[in-house]
Design brief:
Layout (H helix, E strand, L loop, with lengths): L5 H15 L3 H23 L3 H51 L2
Length: about 100
């Protein structure tokens, strides 16, 4: 049996890292697509189609990287929203204290 190619190993590492970082809650469809393409890569390797195995693995890597990027963006947006909310609360509190001193 053929062993996995370097491209397949890279895809599996990227998918595993994405799963470990729990990107699925932010980019589930991209991560699922990466898994589907990884399975297609394995299937191609079973029939000794190394060219397509590598092609699918490369696509799986890109999908997993996209999932990570989308998750990072969603997390950053959430932090930004929390900071805006905190700033708004502080401004309201300062206004309330200022009005209370008059």
């Amino acid at each position: 049996p053929l062993t996995q190619t370097d491209e397949m190993l890279r895809a599996e590492r990227t998918i595993a890292r994405a799963e470990q970082d729990r990107v699925g809650q932010f980019a589930a469809s991209e991560l699922a697509e990466a898994r589907v393409k990884m399975q297609a890569s394995r299937s191609a390797l079973l029939i000794r189609d190394v060219v397509n195995a590598d092609r699918y693995a490369e696509q799986a890597t890109l999908d997993a990287e996209l999932a990570v990027a989308r998750a990072d963006l969603a997390k950053a947006n959430r932090v930004n929203e929390e900071m805006i909310n905190s700033q708004s609360i502080l401004q309201q509190e300062m206004l309330r204290k200022t009005q209370g001193n008059q």
